[in-house]
Write a structure and sequence with these properties.
Elements: E1 30-39, H1 43-55, E2 61-64, H2 73-76, E3 80-82, H3 89-95, H4 100-120, E4 132-136, H5 139-151, E5 156-158, H6 160-166, E6 174-178, E7 182-184, H7 187-200, E8 204-206, E9 213-215, E10 218-220, E11 224-233, E12 250-259, H8 264-270, E13 277-280, E14 286-290, E15 296-300, H9 319-332, E16 341-351, E17 358-362, E18 367-371, H10 380-392, H11 403-406, H12 417-434, H13 441-449, H14 460-465
Parallel strand pairs: 1-2, 1-11, 2-8, 4-13, 11-18
Antiparallel strand pairs: 3-7, 4-6, 5-6, 9-10, 10-11, 12-15, 12-16, 13-14, 14-15, 17-18
Helix pairs in contact: 1-7, 1-10
Length: 470
């Protein structure tokens, strides 16, 4: 039975199940002051603290994390580090056509800077510029991939034989290969490396210090307070300390599996010599990649929203969804029958209606925020950190000139309309996958309103690029 492959899968995050995980920093006790206080110890917060010290070495920077750094999405995602700042080229082209070239340039510059930081700080996170394959598994995907190839420079359209030569699955009909704009990384180790880099440059980090109140220029936890001239909010999927922002994002769960290491024969049976990140071109898509020790991480397909924007660790372990993912895995790679999964987990991401991050300030410019990365934040969070610092310190940069930075997404409606709309959208996307990509009235209405990543003229090929897992 194929589901026997899940029998021994532990409900733990593979990336966090690592002996190299650092010991927690002490919690905040009493009163502290700082020039800059950062709330959140994921990628956004860590990059903000590190970039603040790089840009302004004299700043006294404090970072507050409610758990331990990298414990949420930053430590449990798929590890796809995509250069796009707009959640895919077509999404950016549709929304900001006059500045898409600049957005693409800044995105690639940002990706290269991440690689430079990893090298400079000797972060052991298996950073690899592998590129990415978007694979066609249905006939209508082929036309969509060809359209994507016509619009973009530097991508290569592969026929069926060429696609299967890269990665051998009987489900592949062709593929689009982007060789330069995606890196793969071990996500938790990247977070831990950034944390260590912050400590080395003098950032004071307090873990197990959940901030429960923002009042003017002061942050409060259960055991202490921090007063700061400037505050950067980097809580992403978790409820914002600025209540007015809560209607602009919703938390969505994504579930993931990882296999035991493949044997040499098993790896040879599928190829994958170039170790690219892979995603299929469906609306509800799978993403997958190899790890350092030749495991296959396999996730995606079924995003889960819970009524009232609820967040609960129990939502990370849905046996029925993990079983569905396992069945899809062996449909894609039947030659790996008998392979077992060792870990199963999930995580929550913050989704916005424009499917990429947005930015802004509050409290007369003393508080900045960046959120709404929608699962493609492994690289874009560094850009978001720089935007927040630009805004907090009044710097005019190419980033702050962007309409993408100046504008905000539409808000989500209140419940029960929020849940109904999200579930209807997911059902409609599934129907389109099963009906040659045909978009029903609901999806066409969203297109006209410019809501979500369905926004015209985005193609199904781009859906597959717009994922990092969590």
């Amino acid at each position: 039975m194929k589901l026997a492959a899940l029998a021994e899968a532990e409900p733990r995050v593979f990336w966090l199940d690592d002996r190299s995980a650092p010991q927690a920093q002490p919690a905040l006790l009493g009163r502290e002051t700082a020039d800059l206080a950062v709330v959140g110890g994921g990628y956004t917060g860590l990059w903000t603290a590190l970039r603040a010290k790089e840009r302004r070495p004299g700043l006294d920077v404090v970072l507050l994390e409610g758990d331990v750094c990298g414990s949420a999405a930053s430590g449990r995602n798929g590890g796809f580090c995509d250069a796009s700042l707009t959640h895919g080229y077509a999404n950016g082209l549709a929304r900001w056509p006059s500045e898409i070239d600049e957005l693409e340039r800044l995105g690639l510059e940002n990706l290269l800077a991440i690689g430079d930081t990893i090298a400079r700080h000797n972060i052991d996170c298996d950073w690899q510029r592998t590129g990415e394959l978007t694979v066609a598994t249905q006939p209508h995907h082929l036309d969509e991939l060809a359209e994507e190839a016509d619009r973009r420079e530097g991508v290569v359209l592969l026929d069926q034989d060429a696609a299967r030569a890269e990665l051998n699955s009987p489900t592949y009909l062709g593929a689009l290969y982007d060789p330069s704009r995606t890196a793969l990384v071990e996500p938790a180790r990247l977070a831990w490396g950034l944390r260590q880099a912050c400590l080395e440059v003098g950032v004071r980090i307090f873990e197990n210090s959940q901030v429960n109140r923002l009042h003017h220029r002061s942050l409060s936890t259960a055991t202490g307070t921090v007063g700061a001239d400037h505050i950067a909010l980097a809580t992403n999927a978790f409820p914002s300390l600025l209540h007015r922002l809560r209607r602009f994002t919703v938390p969505v769960y994504d579930l993931v599996l990882i296999t035991e290491p493949l044997s040499a024969d098993q790896l040879q049976s599928i190829g994958w010599r170039h170790r690219q990140g892979v995603a299929d071109a469906s609306n509800l898509f799978h993403y997958y990649r190899l790890t350092r020790d030749n495991r296959i991480l396999w996730g995606g397909y079924l995003p889960l929203y819970h009524y009232g924007s609820r967040i609960d660790p129990a939502f990370e372990r849905r046996r029925s969804v993990h079983e569905l993912l396992a069945r899809h895995f062996f449909q894609t790679f039947p030659q790996l029958e008998g392979l077992k999964f060792t870990h199963r987990w999930g995580g929550v991401i913050d989704t916005s209606t424009r499917f990429c991050a947005f930015y802004g300030t509050a409290h007369s410019g003393h508080v900045a925020y960046a959120l709404g990365y929608t699962g493609l934040g492994v690289a874009a969070t560094r850009f978001g950190a720089d935007v927040m610092l630009d805004l907090l310190y009044g710097e005019s940069t190419p980033r702050t000139a962007l309409q993408m930075v100046k504008s905000r997404p539409r808000a989500f409606p209140p419940e029960p309309f929020r849940a109904a709309g999200i579930h209807l959208t997911r059902w409609s996307m599934s129907q389109a996958d099963h009906h040659a990509g045909h978009r029903n009235l609901w999806l066409r209405t969203l297109d006209r309103l410019g809501l979500g990543f369905d926004f015209y003229p985005r193609t199904s090929a781009t859906y597959a690029r717009e994922r990092s897992g969590l």
